[in-house]
Amino acid sequence: MVFPDGTHAVDDVSFDVHPGEFVTVVGPSGCGKSTLLRIASGLEENTGGSVTIDKSSIGYVFQDATLLPWRTVQKNVELNAELQGMDKATRRQKAMEAIELVNLVGHEGKYPKQLSGGMKMRCSLARSLVLNPKVFLFDEPFGALDEITRERLNDELLRLFLHERFAGLFITHSIQEAVFLSTRVVVMSARPGRIIADYRVPYDFPRQHDIRYEPEFAELCGKISNDLKDAHS
Ligand SMILES: Nc1ncnc2c1ncn2[C@@H]1O[C@H](COP(=O)(O)OP(=O)(O)O)[C@@H](O)[C@H]1O
Ligand SMILES: [Mg+2]
User: Domain ABC transporter: where (predicted)?
Assistant: First the structure.
């Protein structure tokens, strides 16, 4: 990917993400991670190479929850379904199911300003879930949250993943988060972003909260951390 101003953002990146796979990309700031996701979703057009993706069924979650402040949780969660023209009764039902999946039952009538950061993000997730995407793209969705909230949302996201079995492509700068969530972790170099490592995570699902404290887990985090040190230099 080369932008019109000549910025060479991503180079020679190639990988597949299959249904039931959760692939996380980590890399230095500015290495082209968001660009990669935007290309995958069709928001940005790549200048070289090719992308094959089911565009009819993409969920996209950004770092900012991007909720509409004048809509309640229920109405925000219904938004994508409404834009797709889903009838009122069906989208209501779907929204209620999604709200339950993200643990927001009881908050349906609240407005975004009444929600904590974690709840806003749950609401944003639910809004995408309503359409049952086959491909789910996440651009540092929990990056602005405190560590405890982030870990709780990681546990919840894995529950969603087990339930829905979409193909997940997730961006983060947290190595722990990458290893905890993923079936594979892809490490990118500094710009132009290239793949410098690709690890399979040796844990089955469901994953318990405390695998984070196992030696194997720490060892993999250490390897990725070392790759990233090299990526910066
Ligand atoms: N539209 C654009 N035009 C020119 N350069 C861009 C554009 N979008 C992003 N970039 C540059 O491309 C590089 C990769 O950006 P980005 O994908 O946002 O990085 P990351 O998400 O890994 O932090 C950065 O140097 C950024 O400044
Ligand atoms: Mg980014």
Answer: 1-215
